[in-house]
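agent> Task received from the user: take the single chain below, predict its 3D structure, and emit structure tokens. No templates, no multimer pairing.
agent> Plan: (1) validate residues, (2) run structure prediction, (3) serialize to tokens, (4) report one or two observations.
agent> Step 1 OK, no nonstandard residues flagged.
tool_call: predict_structure(input=
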Amino acid sequence: MAKPIKETPVLTGEDAYRFEKAVHNVVPVSEEEKAQAQKDYQWCKSIAKF
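)
tool_result: status=success, residues=50
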């Protein structure tokens, strides 16, 4: 039987400040990093046995 899912805690204080700052200062990923991530994904997909 599954356990009940706990509520997500609310961020307060310094944690909330850092989270909001991180949300507003998103750094775009380079095309090289995107290509490498896609290549890695395709490799993982090729060896998966479902």
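agent> Step 4: summary for the user.
The chain has two helices and no strands.
agent> Done.
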